[in-house]
TrEMBL record:
GO cellular component entries: cytosol
Name of protein: Phosphoribosylglycinamide formyltransferase
Lineage of the organism: Bacteria, Bacillati, Actinomycetota, Actinomycetes, Micrococcales
Protein EC: 2.1.2.2
SUPFAM superfamilies hit by this protein: Formyltransferase
Gene that encodes it: purN
GO molecular function, one term: phosphoribosylglycinamide formyltransferase activity
Catalytic activity from the UniProt record: N(1)-(5-phospho-beta-D-ribosyl)glycinamide + (6R)-10-formyltetrahydrofolate = N(2)-formyl-N(1)-(5-phospho-beta-D-ribosyl)glycinamide + (6S)-5,6,7,8-tetrahydrofolate + H(+)
InterPro entries, per the entry: Formyl_transf_N (IPR002376), Formyl_transf_N_sf (IPR036477), GART (IPR004607)
Positions contributing to N(1)-(5-phospho-beta-D-ribosyl)glycinamide binding: 12-14
Length: 197
């Protein structure tokens, strides 16, 4: 059974998809803890699904490194097989990445390497492209440039707003994430050598 710690900053829609999938006794992974860098709405899912939560507020630390050290200590208490960044809106310090990699994955609302960074959906709309996508990557010390585990295209429709496009991408992100966790748990994906799709 693959054990997961999921880190969030917001509502946790990808987290909910994982929690719902893991309610199936046949699903070979379980979320053992949920962490956040702020008082995120998604922490309420911990109570709903009976999963422990922890918060390491970025604002209560002097710098990114000390915040990262505390976050890493909290994560390591759970000894997870895999750490999932699910909407965590902070770059992890190199020490944290080094300690967890390659068992550290992240979803991104674009078809990488297109539109990396915090505003992938907005950037795609601003560029006027006809399609964007969703990607799942192994986290490294770059900005959304780690090895790609899975990705899929999403069309940009006439009249799309950042909100409508992001909702369609989120639906795809949830499916990619649940499938990737399943594939990792079943040994079909090796995070040390992920194949580009």
């Amino acid at each position: 059974m693959l054990s997961l710690v999921v880190l969030i900053s917001g509502g946790g829609s990808n987290l909910r998809a994982l929690l719902e999938a893991s309610e199936d006794a046949e699903f070979p992974a379980r979320v053992v803890a949920i962490g956040a860098d702020r008082d995120a709405d998604g922490l309420a899912l911990g109570e709903e699904f009976n999963v422990p939560t922890f918060t390491v507020p970025y604002s209560s630390h002097a710098d990114r490194e000390s915040w990262g050290d505390e976050l890493l200590a909290q994560i390591q208490q759970w000894q997870p097989d895999l750490v999932v960044l699910s909407g965590l809106m902070r770059l992890l310090p190199p020490r944290v990445v080094a300690a967890l990699s390659p068992n550290l994955i992240n979803t991104h609302p674009a078809y990488l390497p297109e539109f990396p960074g915090a505003h992938g959906v907005r950037d795609a709309l601003a560029a006027g492209v006809s399609q964007t996508g969703a990607s799942l990557i192994v986290v490294d010390n770059g900005v959304d440039d780690g090895p790609i585990i899975a990705q899929e295209r999403v069309p940009v429709l006439p009249g799309d707003t950042e909100s409508t496009l992001h909702e369609r991408i989120k639906t795809l992100e949830r499916r990619l994430l649940v499938q990737a966790v399943l594939d990792i748990a079943n040994g079909h994906v090796n995070l040390k050598e992920p194949s580009h799709t």
